[in-house]
Amino acid sequence: MSVRYFYTTIKAIEGDRVFWCEVPQLRKSINAIAGSVADDEAVYFYLWQWLQNDPNNQLVKSHWMVFLQYRSCMVTQRVYQNVGHRIDADYETLFYYLLNLLSTAITNNPRNFYGNFQDNKTKPGFFRLILEKWTDKKLRNTLYNFLRGEYKTIGRTNLGIVSLFSANKIQKVLRTSGIFNENHLLIFNCFREVKKASLRSLDKWQEEDWQQVIDRLHQLQPQVILTLEEVQAKLNQIGEIMRNHIDPPYSKFEPNNYDDNSNYFWENIPSKKPSKDLLQQQEIQEDINKLLITLEDEVKQIAYCYYHQKMTQAQIANRLGVHSSTISREITQLCKKIYQLLCAREGKDCPILLNEIKLQSRQKQEIDAYLEYFCQSYLTQI
């Protein structure tokens, strides 16, 4: 029951383990709310409206503070799994940082934390899921900002970040950022070539290593004449762009792209019968449950890791001992099966063969939201 996050607080922290306990007064309050509304989704929305209408009420503030405590714990676990081995900080340090932030910046009014959350632009039935994802992303970006300031962005300089990526990835992100100058990519390729051949780590590079980059650049493009400082400046620029791509700064955080002009997938399905909020229909939940039951055990495990544990495709591939392309393919196939199911319910024509289905990004995004919702409540039990 996801509403327990609103009445459970921290009892103790030991290393990377957090122990929780219920707060009787908060539990009683949630039980009263749950008894007057339809489901957990409605409890979330009730508490949200209560916070907006009476932000100084101590009871509702307490509900949201313990909720933010729990989300902070989840976010810290994920961040620490990804970068803990690269930084000189333990789990407790990161978690306490977020808790201190919450206690100093949010306690007076938790509503301030959600100042730019646009509840009027959330899709009906998605409020809880979108609120949790929005909260986690803001906390994650706040934590990464802390790491940027204290630990040079998970222990890496701009040049260190550049060395993580392939030429194709660099080129794609540069073009997305409006940089079409081929010199940037050429400099990167020369840098990577020399780095691969070098016996020294990047932080121990000397002038002669950089001179090799310049010499290789001049060999490939004699007309391009750059100094060592200019080469480093361009690589630093690439690194900063890639940093913002993989770890966007808090100031650039965008909650969700649910704007007034969005063409929602569900609204674009020509229905042969009137249909209200699809997520509210028990029949759809049952249909998806039946589909999940038919999955092979490995696919169930992939879905559980990806949608419930929020693991990356690479992490899942390492755990299962397969190539990451296998994980990507299975996730895509599952999304297409959900698409077929929904189209069949609404009387929309859909290809029988999965490889003939081409999902648009908005369709994929909302199907992902469906699967996250069900993986939290269903796949944990399989």
From TrEMBL:
- The domain of life is Bacteria
- Ranges of residues in domain Transposase IS30-like HTH: 297-332
Q: Which Pfam families match?
A: HTH_38
Stated name of the protein: Helix-turn-helix domain containing protein
Q: What species is given as this protein's source?
A: Microcystis aeruginosa KW
